[in-house]
Amino acid sequence: MNREFLKNMMLAKKYEKEAFMSLMSPTMAKHVDVIEKEVKAMIFELAKDWACDLSSAANASEDDDSGQEKKVKKVNIS
């Protein structure tokens, strides 16, 4: 995408957020800010955990492909 377009879209979203926050009382606006920060932190943590899981899964699959036999366990379902 065009950099200028993305910059303008981000600026538009910033103004949209400011307009939304101006409709609320100052105490509610503070609560919304806190909630927004918490959600951002949660999303960042989830993304970090997901990336770590992917990298550990990739490392595990590389280790499994190193020529070792895979162990198979028979399971009886009654």
Explain what you see.
The longest helix is centred in the middle third of the chain and has 39 residues, at 26-64. This protein has a domain at 25-53. The protein has helices spanning 3-22, 26-64. It has 2 helices and no strands. With 78 residues, the chain is mainly alpha-helical.
How many DSSP-defined strands? 0
Per the principal axes of the C-alpha atoms, what is the gross shape? Answer: elongated
**Rg (C-alpha, Å):** 24 Å
**Straight-line N-to-C gap:** 57 Å
Proportion of strand residues:
under 5%
SS field, number of helical segments:
2
Low-confidence stretches: none
Name the helix and strand elements from N-terminus to C-terminus, one letter apiece.
HH
Q: What's the average pLDDT?
A: 87
What class, by secondary structure content? mainly alpha
Helix % is over 70%
Largest sheet, strands/sense/barrel? none
